[in-house]
Structure formats: structure tokens, C-alpha cells
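Anyone able to model this chain together with MTE?
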Amino acid sequence: MKQSSVTAALLGAAVAALALALGEFVGIALGGLSLVAAVGDVVVDLAPGWFVRWMIGLLGAAQKPALLTGVVLLVLAVGAGTGIKARSAQGPVGAAYVVFGLVGVIAAARSGSALVGLVAASTAVMAGLFALRRGVGLLAVVPVEDGHSPFEDPRDKVASRRGFLTYASGMTLAAGVIGFGSRLVADRGTEQMRRQVAIPRVRRTVTDKPSPTSSTEVPWAPPPSLTPWTTPNDAFYRIDTALVVPKIDPDSWSLRIDGMVEREVEITLTDLFAMNVIDSAVTLACVSNEVGGQLVGNAVWTGVPLLDVLELAGPMELAEQVMAWSVDSFSAGFPLSALGGDRTALVAFGMNGEPLPFRHGFPARLVVAGLYGYVSAVKWLERIELTTMDSDGYWIPRGWAKEAPIKIASRIDVPLRSQTTQGSQAVAGVAWAPVDGVAAVELAIDDGPWAPCRLERGSGPGRDGEAWVQWFTVWDAEPGLHHLRVRAWDRNGLIQPPGPKHIAPDGAEGYHTRRVFVA
Ligand SMILES: Nc1nc2c(c(=O)[nH]1)N[C@H]1C(S)=C(S)[C@@H](COP(=O)(O)O)O[C@H]1N2
Ligand SMILES: [Mo]
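re: yes, here you go
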């Protein structure tokens, strides 16, 4: 490519960056709308399930930033193209801008912000085309070849090149400043909004804790590195399809209960706070958690029993499924009969004594003990629909099981490293078997027998079977390479299935094994 084309491409990309940043700024300032995220959402929605799963598998948590970066890079690349083209023809350049603008408007409309999208996208398109035209004007007087004609004063060329460079870097700088400004506007006040919510005091605490079980003579002396019983909010795993965390104003939030009900109702956060508020420790697990994985956490949730909330509307005889919906149109459903026993199921607004963090569903979400998150734990909750089993939540047509109880599982967290020294060593971790609870955890070293470990049930509120337990034992480590294997039993006498089984379609199975080299 000739140098002139490279320069033109850079100009085009800088202008596109500026246009994009302006669009973001206007969208966010006017209506909290990010055009880039809206387009990303459309991509996720239109992509086939296997592709989305493959991306998640490939990129894990990096999947969202990767997608957003992809959208931005595409815009910059097309922008570079418009820079090159703009020197000879304006028509295709205008068309490219308008097409991108339209894609933005359509994506915005899908997320319910058509008007804001239209204003933001037209600002971006007009500003972009204007800036590009001006830039190309400057470009035209920049000398292309190194030699110069004897009739020109070389100082003019330097001056005009400098003018062009100033222009292009000005564009880039402005794009950066405006982009950063959009972030500030987006974040300003949202944390304030969350902090102002005072979650009510608990009126009743459900506890049915049996006396602490000591399944071995090993004294409870957990190592400092043992996973804490309650997972701190900022360490709690996050899984969802939201490209940008919804920031909902708690004052205008409401929850609708409709579908197969005697009467549709809509309640506010204040209504919810005035109901029967309870605290309960519940372990939440993701179906995508691999054996030994970290997509599981335990928190004390504050909220109102889901059944109390459903009673306001009065589910009809024929209702079979509780289908919950989020503000971003995610949905998850489980059989109404799951609420029949004494399982904890909450419309939760508190997490470990604080209002729910935005990432975990502020201002309200569902938490249902013993069911994987993808069939139950809808964050940014806005609607609960009673329906038959015929309708499917978000992940079901994408290849995941319709009913998804959390499987018995256990994990070795200590020793942390795969190398340790000989002698007495702590081996410890967590195990869960909701809703009835873990009865025993056993550890096997190499091909030795399964030996029971000491269990600690935690001291939070709630039904103790619904939360994980910590387990602990002492190992007399001898030099060499060893395999540590863990398994759990639940209180129904069921042993953790040995697997190995992949996470799809209804959760992984297998015994977590650690190779430890003892020096
Ligand atoms: N709105 C919304 N809620 C959602 C999801 C989602 O994608 N969107 N994902 C679910 C899944 S798959 C899981 S495992 C849990 C995770 O909750 P956490 O991010 O608070 O740990 O949220 C559930 N609730
Ligand atoms: Mo999940």
C-alpha cells in the first residue's frame, strides 16, 4: 500500500473512533444506552447456541470484553476503509456510515431504546462524515512523494503535514476523552443509588441446624488458606449473558407476577421490604462448574420467600412452572412443585448483609436452593410468569437440561500448591449436596482407603443442607508424587457419582483429584 493510503486509512480509523465514542457518549448520557453493547447483544442472540458455548469455553470470562472489542475493531477497520475511499468517492463512504448507524439503531430498538439509539447513531454518523470530509481536505495538500517540485516552498508541505497530523491525533485524543467520559457518566451515581437502599432487618430466621457433626477425631484446625464459608461478594463468581451490567434505579423498579395467576400484581421494592424478610445461607452453583472449579459460592441472602410473593398473585391450579425474567430478557424456569417442600427460595435483595451488588442482580434476584443458576437464579429480576412446563428458559433450547438439580460435589482447596514438604499437612476444601446436605466427606491418598474428614457446617442462618460445608483432615505426607482424591456423601446415603462426566447438559460429575509432589 502506498504511504498515502496508509495515512488515509489511519485518518478513517481515527474518525470512526471519534464517531463511535460520540455515539456512546450521547447514548449513555441520554438514556444509559451503549450502542456497542447493544450490537454485541444482537450478535449473542443471533449466534447459534453451540457457537456461544464454544466461545464461553474458549474465552471464559474474557468472552464479553472480546465480543465488545470485536465490535469496536470492526468499526475501526471499516473506518479505515472509508478513509481510503473518501479520497475518490463520497457515496460509498456515506453509505457505510449510514449502514453502521442503522445497525446501531436496530440494535438499540431491540433493547427498547429506539429513540435514544436514533439520536446517538445520527450524531455519530453526521459527526463522522463531517470530520472525515475535513480530514480528507487536509490530506489532499499533504505531499505524497518524497521529491518536491521546484515551484513549491518545502516549508508549506511541512506545515500542512503537521496540520494533518495534528488533526488526526486530535481526532484520536477526542475519541479517547469522550469514550472515557461516557464511562464516567455511566458509573456516576449508580453506586450512590445502590448504597442508598437500606435493606430491612430480618424478622424471622429459619434455622434447623443440628449440633455440629464431627465425623472424625481430627480436631477442627483449618489452615488459614481454607476457602471461607461465606464467599465475599467481590470474590463471588459471576456468570450471565449481560454484556453490560444493568444498572437499575431502585425507585422505579417493580416486579410483575403474571401468567397463570388469579390476579396480576406488580410490587415495588418498598412493598417487598414490608413483607416477611428472612436471611438464609444458600450455595449457588453454575452448571458449567467443572470438577474442582470455582463457579460456586456460598452467601447469606436476604429476601422474601418466593412462595409469599407468588401468593400475592395466586397461582392457578394448572400452573406448572415458575418462569423468571430479567430486565435484559434472560429467562429461567423450574417446576412450581420444587417449592412444595421446605426448600429455601427467595426473591433476594441482600447478599452478605449488603444490597445485592450490581453484578449479582441489584436490586432483586431469585435464589433457589439446590437448583443450578441457569434454571433459577435470575438476576435483575423484573417479572415472574406462571406457566406450563411447555415454555423453556433461555438456556434450554441451547442444549442444557430442562430440570437441573445441583449435583453432589466436593473440592480440594488445600494444599494450594502442587508442591509441599514432608510431614503433617492440612488437606481441606468444601463440599455441597443441596438441599439435604453433606453427610460425610472422604479423602483417598494414592490407592489407599477412603478416610473420613472432619466437617464444619458454618454458622450462618438458614437450613444447613442448603449451604456448603468445609472439610478438613491431616495428612502425613511422605516424599514422592501423590494423588489426593475427594468424594462426598449426602444425607440420603447417596454417594457423589464418580464420573467423569462433562458439564453439558446437566452438570459435571467426578472426583476432584490433586497431584501433589512432596519434597
Ligand atoms: N439476568 C440474568 N440472570 C442470570 C443469568 C443471566 O445470564 N442473566 N445467569 C444465571 C446463571 S447461568 C448463573 S450460574 C447465576 C450466577 O449468579 P451470579 O453471577 O450472581 O454468581 O445467575 C443466573 N442468573
Ligand atoms: Mo450458570
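The mean pLDDT is 89.
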